[in-house]
Specification:
384 residues, 4-stranded antiparallel sheet, 43% strand, globular
Protein backbone atom coordinates (compact mmCIF):
# COMPACT_ATOMS: atom_id res chain seq x y z
CA UNK A 1 0.00 0.00 0.00
CA UNK A 2 2.82 2.41 0.83
CA UNK A 3 4.40 2.07 -2.60
CA UNK A 4 1.15 1.83 -4.57
CA UNK A 5 0.33 5.45 -3.75
CA UNK A 6 3.82 6.34 -4.85
CA UNK A 7 3.26 4.57 -8.16
CA UNK A 8 0.08 6.52 -8.86
CA UNK A 9 1.78 9.81 -8.18
CA UNK A 10 4.64 8.76 -10.42
CA UNK A 11 2.36 7.76 -13.29
CA UNK A 12 0.12 10.82 -13.08
CA UNK A 13 2.33 13.66 -12.00
CA UNK A 14 5.96 12.44 -12.38
CA UNK A 15 6.59 13.83 -8.95
CA UNK A 16 10.14 15.18 -9.00
CA UNK A 17 11.77 17.33 -6.40
CA UNK A 18 14.21 18.26 -9.19
CA UNK A 19 13.07 19.02 -12.73
CA UNK A 20 15.65 18.51 -15.46
CA UNK A 21 15.49 20.66 -18.57
CA UNK A 22 17.19 18.95 -21.50
CA UNK A 23 18.08 20.35 -24.87
CA UNK A 24 15.53 19.15 -27.43
CA UNK A 25 16.32 18.43 -31.06
CA UNK A 26 15.21 21.09 -33.49
CA UNK A 27 12.12 20.20 -35.47
CA UNK A 28 12.38 20.94 -39.19
CA UNK A 29 9.48 21.96 -41.36
CA UNK A 30 8.38 19.62 -44.15
CA UNK A 31 7.87 20.59 -47.76
CA UNK A 32 4.17 19.71 -47.97
CA UNK A 33 1.34 22.20 -48.05
CA UNK A 34 -0.38 20.93 -44.91
CA UNK A 35 -3.06 18.34 -44.23
CA UNK A 36 -3.82 16.24 -47.25
CA UNK A 37 -3.46 12.90 -48.92
CA UNK A 38 0.36 12.99 -49.01
CA UNK A 39 2.22 10.93 -51.60
CA UNK A 40 -0.27 8.07 -51.63
CA UNK A 41 2.00 5.62 -49.81
CA UNK A 42 0.75 3.53 -46.95
CA UNK A 43 2.47 4.29 -43.67
CA UNK A 44 2.79 1.53 -41.08
CA UNK A 45 3.14 2.75 -37.52
CA UNK A 46 5.28 0.37 -35.49
CA UNK A 47 6.76 0.48 -32.02
CA UNK A 48 10.53 0.44 -32.19
CA UNK A 49 12.50 -1.80 -29.87
CA UNK A 50 15.50 0.51 -30.17
CA UNK A 51 15.97 2.77 -27.17
CA UNK A 52 18.41 5.58 -26.55
CA UNK A 53 20.76 4.86 -23.67
CA UNK A 54 20.23 7.70 -21.23
CA UNK A 55 22.60 8.22 -18.32
CA UNK A 56 21.12 10.77 -15.90
CA UNK A 57 23.21 13.44 -14.23
CA UNK A 58 24.95 12.08 -11.13
CA UNK A 59 25.87 14.39 -8.26
CA UNK A 60 29.23 13.28 -6.85
CA UNK A 61 29.55 15.82 -4.05
CA UNK A 62 27.72 18.84 -2.71
CA UNK A 63 29.71 21.38 -0.71
CA UNK A 64 28.24 22.27 2.71
CA UNK A 65 26.77 25.74 3.05
CA UNK A 66 28.23 28.12 5.61
CA UNK A 67 26.37 30.43 7.98
CA UNK A 68 27.34 34.10 8.00
CA UNK A 69 27.87 35.75 11.38
CA UNK A 70 25.02 38.16 10.63
CA UNK A 71 22.56 35.33 9.89
CA UNK A 72 23.65 33.44 13.00
CA UNK A 73 23.21 36.49 15.23
CA UNK A 74 19.75 37.23 13.79
CA UNK A 75 18.68 33.60 13.83
CA UNK A 76 17.93 33.61 10.10
CA UNK A 77 16.73 30.21 8.83
CA UNK A 78 15.07 28.84 5.71
CA UNK A 79 16.06 27.58 2.29
CA UNK A 80 17.54 28.92 -0.93
CA UNK A 81 16.39 27.57 -4.31
CA UNK A 82 18.79 27.92 -7.22
CA UNK A 83 18.47 27.04 -10.90
CA UNK A 84 21.85 25.54 -11.79
CA UNK A 85 23.11 24.55 -15.25
CA UNK A 86 25.33 21.45 -15.26
CA UNK A 87 27.37 21.69 -18.46
CA UNK A 88 28.34 18.78 -20.68
CA UNK A 89 31.96 19.75 -20.04
CA UNK A 90 31.64 18.77 -16.38
CA UNK A 91 31.61 22.36 -15.15
CA UNK A 92 28.92 24.43 -13.44
CA UNK A 93 27.35 26.98 -15.78
CA UNK A 94 24.84 29.69 -14.92
CA UNK A 95 23.31 29.92 -11.44
CA UNK A 96 19.99 31.78 -11.06
CA UNK A 97 18.26 32.55 -7.77
CA UNK A 98 14.64 31.38 -7.57
CA UNK A 99 14.19 31.89 -3.84
CA UNK A 100 16.75 33.62 -1.62
CA UNK A 101 17.46 34.49 2.01
CA UNK A 102 18.89 37.67 3.60
CA UNK A 103 22.08 38.18 5.62
CA UNK A 104 24.39 36.73 2.97
CA UNK A 105 22.89 33.22 2.94
CA UNK A 106 21.90 33.40 -0.73
CA UNK A 107 25.48 34.24 -1.63
CA UNK A 108 26.75 31.31 0.45
CA UNK A 109 24.37 28.97 -1.38
CA UNK A 110 25.66 30.22 -4.75
CA UNK A 111 29.25 29.58 -3.65
CA UNK A 112 28.34 26.04 -2.59
CA UNK A 113 26.50 25.41 -5.88
CA UNK A 114 29.54 26.43 -7.93
CA UNK A 115 31.65 23.93 -5.97
CA UNK A 116 29.43 20.93 -6.74
CA UNK A 117 31.07 17.95 -8.43
CA UNK A 118 29.07 15.86 -10.89
CA UNK A 119 29.12 13.44 -13.80
CA UNK A 120 27.31 14.99 -16.81
CA UNK A 121 24.15 13.45 -18.21
CA UNK A 122 24.72 11.51 -21.42
CA UNK A 123 22.70 10.12 -24.31
CA UNK A 124 24.23 7.20 -26.16
CA UNK A 125 27.54 8.06 -24.51
CA UNK A 126 27.48 11.74 -25.56
CA UNK A 127 27.37 14.23 -22.62
CA UNK A 128 24.79 17.01 -22.69
CA UNK A 129 23.90 19.96 -20.47
CA UNK A 130 20.94 19.96 -18.09
CA UNK A 131 19.42 22.52 -15.74
CA UNK A 132 18.26 21.53 -12.27
CA UNK A 133 16.65 23.11 -9.25
CA UNK A 134 19.02 22.76 -6.29
CA UNK A 135 17.89 23.38 -2.72
CA UNK A 136 20.12 24.56 0.14
CA UNK A 137 18.70 24.50 3.69
CA UNK A 138 19.86 26.73 6.53
CA UNK A 139 18.88 25.72 10.06
CA UNK A 140 20.38 26.71 13.41
CA UNK A 141 20.26 23.75 15.80
CA UNK A 142 22.77 23.13 18.57
CA UNK A 143 23.62 19.63 19.74
CA UNK A 144 21.44 19.76 22.82
CA UNK A 145 18.29 20.92 20.97
CA UNK A 146 18.98 18.38 18.21
CA UNK A 147 18.86 15.55 20.76
CA UNK A 148 15.54 16.93 22.01
CA UNK A 149 14.10 17.07 18.48
CA UNK A 150 15.17 13.50 17.78
CA UNK A 151 13.52 12.36 21.01
CA UNK A 152 10.24 14.10 20.13
CA UNK A 153 10.25 12.53 16.67
CA UNK A 154 10.91 9.11 18.18
CA UNK A 155 7.94 9.45 20.55
CA UNK A 156 5.59 10.42 17.68
CA UNK A 157 6.72 7.48 15.54
CA UNK A 158 6.40 4.97 18.39
CA UNK A 159 2.86 6.18 19.07
CA UNK A 160 1.97 5.86 15.36
CA UNK A 161 3.37 2.32 15.06
CA UNK A 162 1.45 1.24 18.18
CA UNK A 163 -1.79 2.75 16.84
CA UNK A 164 -1.43 1.01 13.47
CA UNK A 165 -0.93 -2.41 15.00
CA UNK A 166 2.49 -2.51 16.66
CA UNK A 167 4.47 -5.63 15.78
CA UNK A 168 1.70 -6.84 13.45
CA UNK A 169 2.14 -3.69 11.40
CA UNK A 170 5.94 -3.87 11.36
CA UNK A 171 5.99 -7.60 10.57
CA UNK A 172 3.94 -7.38 7.38
CA UNK A 173 5.85 -9.27 4.67
CA UNK A 174 3.35 -9.11 1.81
CA UNK A 175 0.15 -7.25 0.98
CA UNK A 176 -2.56 -7.53 -1.66
CA UNK A 177 -4.89 -4.59 -2.20
CA UNK A 178 -7.84 -4.23 -4.56
CA UNK A 179 -10.07 -1.26 -5.22
CA UNK A 180 -10.82 1.68 -7.45
CA UNK A 181 -8.70 4.60 -8.57
CA UNK A 182 -10.61 7.77 -9.60
CA UNK A 183 -9.39 10.89 -11.38
CA UNK A 184 -11.22 14.04 -10.31
CA UNK A 185 -11.90 17.31 -12.10
CA UNK A 186 -13.58 20.27 -10.40
CA UNK A 187 -14.54 18.01 -7.51
CA UNK A 188 -16.21 15.40 -9.72
CA UNK A 189 -15.08 11.98 -10.92
CA UNK A 190 -13.75 12.32 -14.48
CA UNK A 191 -12.71 8.67 -14.92
CA UNK A 192 -11.90 5.60 -12.88
CA UNK A 193 -10.24 2.22 -13.16
CA UNK A 194 -9.96 -0.86 -10.98
CA UNK A 195 -6.62 -2.01 -9.61
CA UNK A 196 -4.84 -4.91 -7.95
CA UNK A 197 -1.67 -4.02 -6.07
CA UNK A 198 0.77 -6.68 -4.82
CA UNK A 199 3.76 -5.94 -2.57
CA UNK A 200 6.49 -8.24 -1.30
CA UNK A 201 8.64 -6.34 1.18
CA UNK A 202 11.11 -4.82 1.03
CA UNK A 203 11.41 -4.09 -2.70
CA UNK A 204 8.97 -5.92 -4.97
CA UNK A 205 5.71 -4.48 -6.25
CA UNK A 206 3.31 -5.12 -9.10
CA UNK A 207 0.23 -3.02 -9.88
CA UNK A 208 -2.38 -4.00 -12.49
CA UNK A 209 -4.86 -1.38 -13.69
CA UNK A 210 -7.93 -2.23 -15.78
CA UNK A 211 -9.82 0.46 -17.70
CA UNK A 212 -12.64 -0.68 -20.00
CA UNK A 213 -10.89 -3.99 -20.54
CA UNK A 214 -7.49 -2.42 -21.28
CA UNK A 215 -4.60 -3.38 -18.97
CA UNK A 216 -1.66 -1.43 -17.60
CA UNK A 217 0.93 -3.33 -15.57
CA UNK A 218 3.92 -1.84 -13.76
CA UNK A 219 6.49 -3.89 -11.86
CA UNK A 220 9.39 -2.68 -9.72
CA UNK A 221 11.93 -5.05 -8.15
CA UNK A 222 14.89 -3.43 -6.42
CA UNK A 223 16.81 -1.39 -8.97
CA UNK A 224 14.93 -2.74 -12.00
CA UNK A 225 11.43 -2.52 -13.44
CA UNK A 226 9.25 -3.00 -16.49
CA UNK A 227 5.92 -1.69 -17.74
CA UNK A 228 3.14 -2.82 -20.09
CA UNK A 229 0.52 -0.45 -21.51
CA UNK A 230 -1.98 -2.32 -23.66
CA UNK A 231 -3.81 0.76 -24.98
CA UNK A 232 -0.54 2.40 -26.12
CA UNK A 233 0.94 -0.92 -27.27
CA UNK A 234 4.04 -0.36 -25.14
CA UNK A 235 6.02 -3.07 -23.38
CA UNK A 236 9.58 -2.84 -22.08
CA UNK A 237 12.00 -2.02 -19.30
CA UNK A 238 11.74 1.14 -17.27
CA UNK A 239 14.48 3.71 -17.75
CA UNK A 240 16.90 4.65 -14.96
CA UNK A 241 15.03 7.93 -14.53
CA UNK A 242 11.68 6.15 -14.18
CA UNK A 243 13.09 3.79 -11.55
CA UNK A 244 14.74 6.60 -9.62
CA UNK A 245 11.60 8.74 -9.75
CA UNK A 246 9.56 5.78 -8.51
CA UNK A 247 11.92 5.30 -5.56
CA UNK A 248 11.74 8.98 -4.72
CA UNK A 249 7.96 9.06 -4.86
CA UNK A 250 7.83 6.08 -2.46
CA UNK A 251 9.31 8.35 0.18
CA UNK A 252 6.10 10.36 0.32
CA UNK A 253 4.12 7.63 2.15
CA UNK A 254 4.18 7.35 5.94
CA UNK A 255 5.25 3.69 5.64
CA UNK A 256 8.66 4.88 4.47
CA UNK A 257 9.08 6.89 7.67
CA UNK A 258 7.66 4.42 10.18
CA UNK A 259 9.46 1.35 8.81
CA UNK A 260 12.81 3.16 9.02
CA UNK A 261 13.56 3.03 5.30
CA UNK A 262 14.91 6.59 5.50
CA UNK A 263 17.85 5.73 7.77
CA UNK A 264 21.11 6.42 5.99
CA UNK A 265 19.30 8.41 3.29
CA UNK A 266 17.74 11.36 5.11
CA UNK A 267 17.77 13.45 8.28
CA UNK A 268 14.76 13.35 10.59
CA UNK A 269 13.51 16.40 12.46
CA UNK A 270 10.52 17.34 14.61
CA UNK A 271 8.84 20.42 13.10
CA UNK A 272 6.25 21.08 15.80
CA UNK A 273 2.46 21.21 16.15
CA UNK A 274 0.37 22.32 13.16
CA UNK A 275 -3.33 23.36 13.20
CA UNK A 276 -5.62 20.64 11.88
CA UNK A 277 -9.44 20.69 12.14
CA UNK A 278 -11.92 21.64 14.83
CA UNK A 279 -9.27 23.26 17.00
CA UNK A 280 -7.00 20.21 16.90
CA UNK A 281 -3.31 20.07 16.08
CA UNK A 282 -1.08 17.47 14.44
CA UNK A 283 2.53 16.57 15.21
CA UNK A 284 4.71 17.20 12.17
CA UNK A 285 7.90 15.27 11.33
CA UNK A 286 10.18 16.06 8.39
CA UNK A 287 12.68 14.05 6.37
CA UNK A 288 15.32 16.01 4.46
CA UNK A 289 17.27 14.13 1.79
CA UNK A 290 20.77 14.83 0.47
CA UNK A 291 19.58 16.56 -2.70
CA UNK A 292 17.22 18.83 -0.75
CA UNK A 293 13.98 16.91 -1.26
CA UNK A 294 11.78 17.22 1.84
CA UNK A 295 8.65 15.41 3.01
CA UNK A 296 6.50 16.37 6.00
CA UNK A 297 4.37 13.75 7.78
CA UNK A 298 1.45 14.74 10.04
CA UNK A 299 0.05 12.58 12.85
CA UNK A 300 -2.94 13.27 15.11
CA UNK A 301 -2.86 13.01 18.92
CA UNK A 302 -3.75 9.31 18.79
CA UNK A 303 -0.90 8.57 16.38
CA UNK A 304 -2.92 8.12 13.19
CA UNK A 305 -1.23 9.37 10.00
CA UNK A 306 -3.27 12.29 8.68
CA UNK A 307 -1.31 13.55 5.68
CA UNK A 308 2.05 13.89 3.94
CA UNK A 309 3.11 17.09 2.18
CA UNK A 310 5.97 17.74 -0.23
CA UNK A 311 7.04 20.09 -3.04
CA UNK A 312 7.94 19.34 -6.64
CA UNK A 313 9.02 21.63 -9.47
CA UNK A 314 6.93 21.72 -12.66
CA UNK A 315 8.08 22.36 -16.24
CA UNK A 316 8.08 26.12 -15.62
CA UNK A 317 10.27 25.75 -12.50
CA UNK A 318 7.35 26.65 -10.26
CA UNK A 319 7.00 25.00 -6.86
CA UNK A 320 3.92 22.73 -6.71
CA UNK A 321 2.54 21.50 -3.38
CA UNK A 322 1.49 17.84 -3.37
CA UNK A 323 -0.51 16.41 -0.47
CA UNK A 324 -1.81 12.94 0.46
CA UNK A 325 -4.64 12.78 2.99
CA UNK A 326 -5.54 9.51 4.74
CA UNK A 327 -9.08 8.72 5.91
CA UNK A 328 -11.54 6.00 6.94
CA UNK A 329 -9.10 3.74 8.77
CA UNK A 330 -10.21 0.10 8.91
CA UNK A 331 -8.64 -2.84 10.72
CA UNK A 332 -7.44 -5.64 8.44
CA UNK A 333 -6.06 -8.67 10.30
CA UNK A 334 -5.35 -6.47 13.31
CA UNK A 335 -3.57 -3.81 11.23
CA UNK A 336 -5.14 -0.36 10.94
CA UNK A 337 -4.94 1.03 7.39
CA UNK A 338 -6.65 3.92 5.55
CA UNK A 339 -9.24 2.70 3.05
CA UNK A 340 -9.35 6.15 1.42
CA UNK A 341 -6.37 8.17 0.20
CA UNK A 342 -7.09 11.56 -1.37
CA UNK A 343 -4.45 13.47 -3.30
CA UNK A 344 -4.37 17.27 -3.66
CA UNK A 345 -2.22 19.39 -5.97
CA UNK A 346 -1.96 23.04 -4.91
CA UNK A 347 -5.12 22.52 -2.87
CA UNK A 348 -7.13 20.98 -5.72
CA UNK A 349 -8.51 17.45 -5.26
CA UNK A 350 -6.97 15.50 -8.16
CA UNK A 351 -7.48 11.78 -7.43
CA UNK A 352 -8.78 9.25 -4.91
CA UNK A 353 -7.72 5.70 -4.07
CA UNK A 354 -10.54 3.65 -2.54
CA UNK A 355 -9.56 0.22 -1.19
CA UNK A 356 -12.24 -2.46 -1.23
CA UNK A 357 -10.04 -5.16 0.30
CA UNK A 358 -6.59 -5.64 1.84
CA UNK A 359 -4.85 -8.90 2.75
CA UNK A 360 -1.51 -9.36 4.48
CA UNK A 361 1.18 -12.05 4.68
CA UNK A 362 -0.16 -14.29 1.95
CA UNK A 363 2.34 -16.29 -0.12
CA UNK A 364 3.08 -14.51 -3.42
CA UNK A 365 4.59 -16.42 -6.38
CA UNK A 366 7.84 -14.86 -7.62
CA UNK A 367 6.88 -15.36 -11.26
CA UNK A 368 4.35 -12.50 -11.23
CA UNK A 369 7.28 -10.05 -11.00
CA UNK A 370 9.20 -11.60 -13.91
CA UNK A 371 8.89 -9.87 -17.27
CA UNK A 372 7.16 -12.31 -19.66
CA UNK A 373 8.50 -13.04 -23.13
CA UNK A 374 5.07 -12.40 -24.63
CA UNK A 375 3.04 -9.36 -23.43
CA UNK A 376 -0.21 -11.09 -24.45
CA UNK A 377 0.04 -13.08 -21.22
CA UNK A 378 -0.50 -9.84 -19.29
CA UNK A 379 -3.96 -9.28 -20.76
CA UNK A 380 -5.40 -11.94 -18.48
CA UNK A 381 -6.54 -11.17 -14.95
CA UNK A 382 -3.77 -11.57 -12.40
CA UNK A 383 -4.13 -14.83 -10.45
CA UNK A 384 -2.48 -15.29 -7.08
Amino acid sequence: MRTFLALLILLLFFSFTIFAQEDKPKQENGSGSGIGSGNGKKIDLKFSDEKAEIEPLKTLSKAPVKYTNSAREKGTEGEVLLKVTFLASGEIGSVTVIKGLPDGLTEQAIIAAKQMKFKPAAKNGVPYSVTKIVRFSFQLIDDKSNDLIDEKAKVVMEKAVAKLGGDKYLNVKTSIGEGRFSLLKDGRIASFQSFTDVIVYPDKERTDFTDNGSKTVQVNTGDAGWIYEEFLEKFGDQSENQIENFKQSMRTHYDYLLRGKWKGEAELSYVGRRPSTLGKRNDVLKLTFEKGFQVEYEFDDEGLPMKTVYLRMNADNQAITEENRYARFISYQGILMPSIIDHFTNGEHTFRIAYESLEFNRNIPDEIFIKPDNPKKLKKKLKL
